[in-house]
Specification:
heterodimer; A: alpha+beta; Penicillin-binding protein 2a (Domain 2); seven-stranded mixed beta sheet; five-stranded antiparallel beta sheet; B: about 375 residues; three-stranded antiparallel beta sheet; about 70% helix; about 5% strand
């Protein structure tokens, strides 16, 4: 009995699906047949707009502009010769080249192939008006990334490019498609997930001339979120101007909030080159020996020179190897085993504050030898050298702080006393990035263990919380004060190395560095300092690659500070 | 009668397989994306499947009675394993890799559930109900315990996530419990409860499953994503009209408009290329197969065999109806294969094994 019920239910369900089949194929069959005949359903993707990037004052750093692409639908282009002759004539490009691009990029007969990207408005209008004469011709509107500040903020903002094959396979699940543009460096890359929108599209029914007959469905594109940065474009501009086409980097950071206000690197590039069709320009950037794509502020590795004396001071005071009153005699050089290690001047008798202010090498040779390489490495690492600052930009470099074991492991060489001498003044194997020295200076200026330089301020309308614990450094405050006194004297003292920065109305503390390089090239010039009393308390780092002595770095810093003072930012 | 049923099953199976292979050959005809290897793979496994059917029909499948629980427990372990170490294809963990062979334990579970339910229900007699206690006892014996036997694997399969197979198990449970003669007063309240709870189940669905259900209700809601498949599938089937566009003639198929056209949506290729006559004939073949299964059940003279035959026929019927209905846009897309036609080794082998058991039940009837 129940088996009969089951059989009947199954029979009715089978009749039901057969009925469905009958309806689709016999009753509606002709409609569907016509739909399939011209293959007349077409998906027209509507690209979403990428999020806009603002600076802290609301100035637009990355925007989208309208652009026009010329595309050809293969199955509708009946007379290709005529069509491409016409295109070549209007756009003034080689016909063979167009045909080649067209053939290379065909995927399916109904998918429009973009043959020329980003044509002028006039050309787009001419083509659009004559479209009816050439079946298969399409002018598509599109958004293109635009960077109004060009070279100035290129490294921070980065650039975008077409997604590549391996990235698609990895990111498919996150909604990336073969047409997606993806951030390649800078903020465009770090926050690509937010900037990226969701593409929408139309499903339309078209007739045999490719004209739309009916709209079958529409999915609205969702634009990406806009992102606000901590960057201040005015300071960016000032810093770039001050560098005056000298290779190097400038970073300025708000001392209280760890917000990076400016970060420039020279030589720079125009991120718009990656957007326009002129790919040869962008390709050239990769081969340029001056490495314009490198963000020297976070990815360039250089010896720190005398700036490295700061951890030495702290280490020596903390371990009791010296006191603030310990003095050493500087005769202009230090002899060790028949070799002479030079100082910049003959400083005579120097106490600690004087030694910092005058950057006396001999004093630090003595201090370094008292400490030994292990303690130096230990303190240098405590100040974050050799580790990432965690700034929200891609490709930050870690740098290197040597020690006895690492030297044995990597170079298979012993550690000699001479190495300790070099180590003490920031020469030798030590490599740092400008942002690391900036972080170290901020930690000292604020007496804070946690310094987190960052560039993101808002995503959409939401502010980014920055609730780091303000833990103090594990350093005796008296020792820190002594160090700061030295940093003040470097500017205030008549013979201080940063005398140039004694500016009316701004109190500057800081340390210079001149890092000698091998191969007979000019030394790297450093100045890292902070202004604790200014309206906006800033900590900054000026670095000139092969820029000569630290005097040059101070000159750049001076120009920046004066200009900021003039514009009433400081 | 016995001979006739056996002949019918063989003829229907071979006809369905042939249809499937022809469609698969066409689907991979001029396309780099769907490799030709798929066709030969399916051909080999179809032949293996026929061999397995033949061998099983010579084997006394009532022996499965004693193996039911072990088989079931092993299968549960496999399902847990697949969740832990399974291979991830298209965002779902359904496959286990043994050497070079991928294998889907959820397919095997269909069989295990039929066997375990057949055994459990065949040993239960219905007792008269005098009191509340006896009512509760027979309720739990006749309904709750078998329900738990099905719900346990369902949860694991749902987690994979494979909504289609999970729902299929539920369907088989309802069929078997109904066929076993459990009183309707046990079944109906639960069906009502299930329907009442269904809206809340919405929240435990995966986003893509929700999307599919939404799209079923309104295919043009997402014409680029999930709705695309349904729209293109309907166009493919509909454009086949009475006689079809001929082998290799389906433009929807040949121009790669149909996603998943070698697996879940292969029926749309058949509809497009063979038209209403071809597609209806295929449905008819399936009905013959299922009807033979029900006849074998009717003539069986033991409850275990009866329930096995009903369960197997039920699974085949549900899969056919749901798959075809989904291709035609009558049901939501849940991802069930069309037995013997869709590409997929696990599905094909399990279908063959189930028919083998059916044939064996048919043969052993008199000896028993």
């Amino acid at each position: 009995m129940r088996l009969k019920v089951i059989r009947l239910v199954i029979l009715y369900l089978f009749l039901f699906i057969t009925g469905g089949l009958l309806y689709l194929q016999i009753i509606r069959g002709n409609d569907y047949f016509l739909l399939s005949l011209n293959n007349s359903i077409r998906v027209v993707p509507i690209e979403s707009r990428r999020g806009i990037i603002f600076d802290r004052n609301g100035a637009v750093l990355a925007d989208n502009r309208f652009s026009f692409d010329v595309a050809v639908v293969p199955q509708e282009a009946k007379d290709k010769e005529k069509l491409f002759d016409y295109l070549a004539q209007v756009l003034k490009v080689d016909k063979e080249k167009l045909l080649k691009t067209f053939k290379r990029k065909i995927t399916a007969s109904f998918v429009p192939v973009v043959v020329v990207e980003d044509v002028s408005r006039e050309a787009a209008i001419i083509l659009e008006e004559n479209k009816f004469r050439f079946p298969g011709l399409m002018v598509r509107t599109d958004y293109r990334r635009y960077y109004p500040f060009r070279e100035i903020s290129a490294h921070v903002i980065g650039y975008i490019g077409k997604i590549n094959r391996s990235e698609i396979t990895q990111l498919k699940e996150y909604g990336y498609t073969a047409q997606s543009m993806i951030g390649r460096s800078g903020i465009e890359r770090s926050y690509d997930r937010y900037l990226q929108g969701q593409d929408g599209g139309l499903q339309v029914e078209v007739n045999n001339r490719g004209q739309q007959v009916r709209l079958l469905g529409y999915k609205e594109p969702v634009g990406g979120q806009s992102i606000g940065l901590t960057i201040d474009s005015r300071i960016q501009q000032i810093a770039m101007d001050a560098l005056q086409e000298k290779r190097g980097a400038v970073i300025a950071m708000d001392l209280e909030t760890d917000e990076v206000l400016a970060m420039v690197s020279y030589p720079s590039f125009d991120p718009n080159d990656f957007v326009s069709g002129q790919s040869y320009k962008a390709a050239g950037l990769f081969h340029d020996s001056s490495a314009p794509l490198l963000n020297r502020a976070i990815s360039g590795l250089y010896p720190p020179g005398s700036v490295f004396k700061l951890p030495i001071v702290v280490a020596a005071l903390e371990t009791g190897k010296i006191t603030p009153r310990t003095s050493f005699m500087c005769q202009g050089f230090y002899s060790l085993g028949g070799r002479s290690f030079g100082c910049s001047h003959t400083h005579g008798m120097q106490d600690l504050v004087q030694a910092i202010a005058h950057s006396c090498n001999v004093y630090f040779f003595n201090a370094g030898l008292l400490l030994g390489p292990e303690l130096i490495s230990q303190y240098a690492r405590q100040f974050g050298l050799g580790s990432l600052t965690g700034i929200d930009l891609p490709s930050e470099q870690k740098g290197f702080v040597p020690d006895r074991l690492l030297r044995k492991k990597i170079k298979n060489r012993q550690w000699y006393k001479g190495d300790t001498l070099n180590f003490s003044i920031g020469q030798g194997d030590t490599l740092v990035t400008p942002i690391q020295l900036l972080r170290m200076m901020a930690a000292i200026a604020r007496n804070s263990k946690e310094v987190h330089p960052h560039i993101l301020k808002t995503i959409g309308s939401l502010g980014v919380e920055n609730n780091s614990v303000q833990e103090k450094l594990e350093i005796n405050e008296k020792n820190l004060e002594t160090l700061k006194l030295g940093l003040r004297e470097a500017v205030q003292d008549e013979e201080g190395t940063a005398r140039l920065l004694a500016i009316q109305g701004v109190s500057v503390l800081g340390k210079t560095g001149t890092a000698e390089t091998s191969g007979g090239r000019a030394a790297h010039a450093w100045f890292v300092g902070f202004c604790p009393l200014a309206k906006t308390k800033i900590v900054f780092c000026v670095f000139l690659e092969h820029g000569g002595t630290s005097y040059n770095a101070c000159a750049v810093a001076r120009q920046i500070l004066l200009k900021m003072q003039e514009e009433q930012i400081l | 009668m016995q001979r006739i049923l056996e002949q019918r099953i063989w003829i229907a199976t071979v006809a369905i397989m042939t249809f499937g292979l022809a469609a698969l050959y066409s689907a991979s005809y001029q396309n780099a994306r769907v490799e030709r290897g798929i066709f030969y793979d399916q051909l080999v496994w179809a032949l293996v499947g026929l061999l397995v059917m033949f061998l099983l029909s010579r084997f006394d499948c009532r022996r499965l009675f004693s193996m039911a629980y072990i088989f079931y427990i092993l299968n549960i372990i496999l399902l847990i394993t697949v969740l832990i170490i399974g291979r991830n294809i298209l965002g779902a963990k359904r496959w286990i890799e043994v050497g070079s062979i991928n294998f889907q334990p959820s397919e095997l579970m269909k069989l295990a559930v039929v066997i375990v339910l057949a055994r459990y229900l065949s040993q239960r007699n219905t007792f008269p109900v005098f009191s509340v206690q006896s009512f509760l006892r027979s309720l739990s014996h006749e309904f709750i315990i078998p329900l738990l036997l099905v719900v346990l694997p369902m949860l694991f399969i749902f987690k994979q996530p494979d909504l289609g197979t999970a729902l299929l198990l539920l369907g088989v449970f309802i069929i078997l419990i109904f066929a076993s003669g459990v009183r309707l007063r046990f079944i109906l309240p639960f069906l009502g409860l299930g329907l009442a709870v269904a809206p809340f189940a919405w929240h435990i669905l995966k986003p893509y499953q929700k999307e599919r259900l939404m799209v079923f209700l309104n295919p043009s809601a997402d014409p680029l994503g999930a709705g695309y498949t349904i729209i293109q599938s309907k166009i493919a089937v509909g454009s086949g009209r009475l006689l079809g566009k001929g082998w290799f003639g389906g433009s929807q198929n040949q121009l790669s408009f149909l996603p998943e056209r070698h697996t879940d949506f292969i029926f749309s290729v058949i509809g497009e290329e063979w038209g209403f006559l071809g597609a209806a004939f295929l449905i008819f073949c399936f009905f013959i197969l299922i009807d033979s299964g029900l006849k074998i059940a009717k003539h069986s003279n033991d409850r275990f065999g009866f329930l096995m035959a009903v369960g197997i026929a039920g699974i085949l019927a549900l899969q056919t109806i749901i798959n075809v209905g989904m291709v035609l846009g009558l049901f939501p897309v849940v991802g069930l294969t069309l037995p013997f036609v869709s590409y997929g080794r696990s599905s094909l082998m399990i279908s063959a094994v189930m028919l083998g058991i059916l044939l064996s039940l048919n043969r052993r009837r008199i000896i028993f």
